[in-house]
Write a structure and sequence with these properties.
The complex is a heterodimer of chains A (110) and B (120).
Chain A: E1 9-12, E2 18-23, E3 35-40, E4 47-50, E5 64-69, E6 72-77, E7 86-93, E8 99-101, E9 105-109
Parallel strand pairs in A: 1-9
Antiparallel strand pairs in A: 2-6, 3-4, 3-7, 5-6, 7-8, 7-9
Chain B: E1 3-7, E2 10-12, E3 18-25, E4 34-39, E5 45-51, E6 60-62, E7 70-75, E8 80-85, E9 94-101, E10 107-110, E11 114-118
Parallel strand pairs in B: 2-11
Antiparallel strand pairs in B: 1-3, 3-8, 4-5, 4-9, 5-6, 7-8, 9-10, 9-11
Classes of the chains: A mainly beta (110), B mainly beta (120).
């Protein structure tokens, strides 16, 4: 199972919006609505931000939103804040009863 | 409050074995699948494997990179999940996270991770 494809880095200024893409195949992202997104600050464990493509867990800011089209899922962060600077990973359940992660995207808030 | 606490990491020589533990609290452990995810230094997340709950047979699935070398088990009476790692390679060096996968595909809770270093 190959890793999902994410851009290595994205950046934006405070208040702006950014979008991170996550491209897989019909065996993972395209085949299931079981796409999730995780935020990871340096030295910390990942934190669930989006599940089932577009759902937010309780306590996650509504500035975070998710979507999917075909084999590509996207995470959008609006109204960028300094605290959003972190690594972001997408994940998908797969047809092999396994999971696959994206390579990760480093978000820099300028 | 759900908590997952990993233990058992450390320095081990190539070819040797190590067993990690994940002690859970704050939920009915036996009702849930459990999974392990690792992160090599400076790298991304890699799914390692998971074990289903007893209600779903308690069976396991593994990533190709560890299949045949790693084994996940569980003791529901103690609320502990284990990761037995045999024939360790230098490329297994990583922080190993215990996490809880839900039926809708997400990992909702994560432990703090335990570092495994495979080196001679």
């Amino acid at each position: 199972q190959s890793a999902l494809t994410q851009p290595a880095s994205v950046s934006g200024s405070p208040g702006q919006s950014i979008t991170i893409s996550c491209t897989g195949t019909s065996s993972d992202v395209g085949g299931y609505n079981y796409v999730s997104w995780y935020q990871q600050h340096p030295g910390k464990a990942p934190k669930l931000m989006i599940y089932e493509v577009s759902n937010r867990p309780s306590g996650v800011s509504n500035r975070f939103s998710g979507s999917k089209s075909g084999n590509t899922a996207s995470l959008t962060i609006s109204g960028l804040q300094a605290e959003d600077e972190a690594d972001y990973y997408c994940s998908s359940y797969t047809s092999s009863s396994s999971w696959v992660f994206g390579g990760g995207t480093k978000l820099t808030v300028l | 409050e759900v908590q997952l606490v990993e233990s058992g990491g450390g320095l081990v020589q190539p070819g040797r074995s190590l067993r990690l533990s994940c002690t859970a609290s704050g939920f009915t452990f036996g009702d849930y699948a459990m999974s392990w995810v690792r992160q090599a230094p400076g790298k991304g997340l890699e799914w390692v494997g998971f074990i289903r709950s007893k209600a779903y047979g308690g069976t396991t699935e593994y990533a190709a990179s560890v299949k045949g070398r790693f084994t996940i088990s569980r003791d529901d009476s103690k609320s502990i999940a284990y990761l037995q790692m045999n024939s360790l390679k230098t490329e297994d060096t990583a922080v190993y996270y215990c996490t809880r996968p839900l039926g809708t595909g997400e990992f909702d809770y994560w432990g703090q991770g335990t570092l495994v270093t495979v080196s001679s």
